[in-house]
Every structure is written in C-alpha cells, then in structure tokens.
Structure prediction request, 263 residues.
Amino acid sequence: MNAIVTLTILALAALLSGAIKTWNEMKRLRSPRTDPRALLVWQDHAGLDLQKESLITALSMTNDVLRLLVAALCFAAALRGWNAPPPWVDPAISLIYYGSIGLALPICCFLAGASITFWIASHAIQPVISTLADEGITRGQLLIRWEQISHYQADPAGKNILIYSRKCPQYVTMVCRFLNQEIFAQGRDLLAARLSPALLHGSYPWYRRKAIFAILLSLIMWPFFILGLIIYPINEPWVWFYYAAVIVLSYYFNIAILRAYIG
Prediction:
C-alpha cells in the first residue's frame, strides 16, 4: 500500500470518526429531558438561534472552515514528508518520524470533522423540546441555569424571547420560540418572575462586551492559517506538526472562549 493510499485512509477514517462522534453527541443533547417539575414545556427549533448573532456565528463558522483547510494542508505536508523525508531521517529514527505523521494527521482530521459536523447537526437535528423549570431553561439535555442569564427581551410580534448571557450580557445565548401567543405569555410571565427584562448599562466590565468576544474569536484561526500558507513550501517535520498543533490548540481555545463568554 503506497503512501497516498495509507494517509488518505487515515485521514478519511479520522474525519468520519469526528463527524459521527459530533452527530451522536448532538442527538444526545437534543433528546428530550424528562422533568416532571417543569413549569412550561414547548417544542422549539434550536438552530435558528444563530440568526440572532450573525457576527459571532460567522466568526465561529469561519474558524471551523479554516480548521478544515489547515487539516488539508497537514495532509499535503504529511504526504510530502512521507514520500520525501528530510536527509537527516535515517533508519534509526524513521519509525519515530513516520509514526509522528501517522499520529498527527488523524488528530487533525478528527477535530476538523467534529468542528464542521457541529453546524450541520445543529440545523439537521430538529425540533427539540424546551422547558422552563425551577433550576433554569432546558433545551433537550442542555440546561442554562438562572444564574447564567443576565436578562431577557420579549418580542410579542414574533412570539420570541431572547435570553442573554450573564458572562457577556450583549450576547443572545438562546432564543425561546413559542407556537402561539398563549404559550408565549406563559413563558414571559415565568421569566419575569426570575429575570430582569432589561440590561443595566455599565453593570459589566469592558472585557465582557460582545466586541471583545468577536475580536478573540477572529484571532483563533486567521493569523495561524495565514502563517500556515507561508510556511507550507518548507519540507520539514515541524511544518505538519505546526498544522496539528494549530488545529488542536485552536479547537480547545475556541471552547475556552465560548465558556468564558457564554457559560
């Protein structure tokens, strides 16, 4: 089996594994949450939340697309390094050299596949059962506790209620959509008993603003992707190792930023 077949099988298997894992995890998160104490239960469409935060959504999706492109660069660099190893790779260290390629490439493709599939699964796995409960708002298995929410904003015309993050009070972390005005009114009254209907200006630090959130998201991938294009012609092991490091670190750094601003 030649190098291109071997690496292609590794890459595709890892990409598919990441996609399947994310799809199954989204199905689990969207499955109904049984809570006999729920105050209100309704059927919702979670994927449409992204429309309320188009900038943040666009930046997040761009990061995942760039992660997939970096995985492609890693594949090309790994294939080149496999077929034409640097002169200093002698038989004594060849096992380590080829083993490193065989490890780095699947990790890149697994995380890239997981990243891209998140957006597909978010829109495809619908609808989802949401509830208002004593401990917070649930959507499937996801629970947003009351203490994680800054305030809400009701839209009677659209029968929607926007839920804002306490960590980033300008960010819409959830949109509750109701089928009719009666259920909308029940949801609004229940939220009014627990949350403020307006944001108190100046009540949060500058680094919690949505603009800072957006800047941090934009810095996750773009600088490293551009650098990756610049260094691609260099046939050294650290090039494909760089791509692997970018994908792994950006993936978990992205999660850390989301947790810091959304909760």
Summary: The chain has a mean pLDDT of 88. The chain is about 55% helix and 15% strand. The CA atoms of residues 125 and 151 lie 28 Å apart. The chain has one domain: 3-261.
